[in-house]
Amino acid sequence: MGSLTALGALLLILMIIVGGKQGISSFLSMVINFGILFFSIVLIAFHLPPIAVTIVASVILLSITIFWSSASDNASTTAFQASVMILIILIVIIIPIEYWARVGGFGLEDSEELEGLSMYVGISFTKLAISTAILSSLGAIAEASIAIASGLDEITIQHPKISSSQLFLDGIVIGKQIIGTAVNTLFFGFFGSSMGLFIWFYGLNYSFGDIINDKVFAAELIAIIISLIGVVLTIPGTTLMMSHRLKKIQDKEKSESGK
Amino acid sequence: MWTMAFKLKSRMTWIQVLIVVIFCLVAVFLTAHDDSLYSEPIFQVTKVTNGKVTKMSDEFHNVDYYHQQLLSGHITNGKYAGKHLKIQNAYSNSGAMDHQYRTNQKLFIVLHTSPKLHATVKDLKRDTPIIFLLALAVSLLFIILKFRGVTVISSIVINTILFWLAVKIDHHNNGAAVIPIFSILAVIFCIITLFLVMGWNRKMLVTLSAVISATAITILLTLLVFGVTHEKGMYYESMQYVTQLPKPLFLAEVLIGVLGAVMDEATDIVASLATLKQERPELSKLQVFNSGRQIGKSIMGPLINVLFFIFMAETLPMTLLYLKNGNTWKYSFSMNMSLGMTSSLISGIGIVLTVILSSLFAGLLIKGDER
Question: Does A42 share its domain with A141?
Fold first, then answer.
């Protein structure tokens, strides 16, 4: 048995112990997310437009991550709508930034690994950098929107008469509570995944100017800041969706009771 | 009354938006005119002349186009400031290692003085877009989080400085002690971050002990699995940017990478259980533990996915390159994605263990009167 399989089995067992059925579905959602991610790369390799493939894949990935979590129907529907909205905003921000900063492709630091590979494959690596940045933000957006939507859903269950403007204020309060730690999740993930790069920079005496202009570093930093912006925007985004939804439900009840 | 409040609110929103726009523009302006801070020569492109285009194809039938371009412009800093130059550049449509340059872009160049002054392009100057994006993120944090934004940003800044210090110490040890160094760093990270989020109290200490023990057990379990499976299928040689022994570096990367998620989760669970115990002090230790498990099982899935996407997405370009170079799916996966997948699985184990340990510690250690 390979290490990967053994670790996977260990994770599955632990997840079942903690979550039972929910544990299995959480595990499966990760496996299927991997499948979709890999399939997207294969599609891009077959020259389908990278950004379009990424957008379609992202919507599917978000829906799997959100609807397979244990959030209530109301919460997960709201979280899904909000995260798709955030996804659209992020795409609008990321496309001009990537064309401006041109971080697509590989840097000098990659030279050794690229040895013997043909680099002229006819697929735009700038577009691929856009895909990478979008995909790396998906988990963070999904997590933040589920957390906020679940919190707000709890409030609407306990106070069904709450006004939508009051709910909006509550949402911002809940959002502030979760954001501090959500940002940490992102930044430590970033520190961990680019530790080798940082050691490389230090070892080869890169100056601050060298680092900030470095293609590989810039690519990673852009991806993480885009995720950060996504998480921050999730607070008003999810809250807006939830209060809108509540208003619609309340209006409907009002018109029904008026009849 | 309502409309007035609304007007006031919307006016404040407009002022905020205006401040953000000005802040970002200032950041862009400053970094667009910081050429004199660089010791490397910077070249401003003022005119681009397109040269000939060649069609290329490789042994794997990948078709690409190779373009020549002549960049005219002047040097903006250093000894040769103001000097006009023409530089040859070539780029491909895919642009994996090369770039098409346009007018108004600034480039770092390498100057050659013999036989006469000429230059080659090194790379694009990218500080302006990076600083712009940072400015945008910082201002959004302040607008949406208000004062809390200060805590979030200071926590990021402090942690970045500490991380850089740890990298420095690691380098001076030639990577011999990477795991001890980053384990100590991890503990310091936890203390500072949890202090900023929760303050110094019993709740924070419970969270801290849950985080540290969950992370430690995760690393031990990983080593155990590696021992049992003889690290079969671990392609350390495929690790990127490795300047020291890859295996300890990999473990240190995972250790730091999972820390944020584990803290996020432990904070959530301990804080909710403390509130619960305060509202209903009659709950037994076991009942508190079970409530913790209930909270934990709903957040663990999304949290694992956060790290999964961070670890996996960045492997995309290289995997694609492997696929386009006629490699099989399996080989492309093994050489590029398997380490990311391993990191995701180890992180997942850490996240699940945190559910158990933070519920356990909260059940044992949190009293009903604890605020």
Answer: no
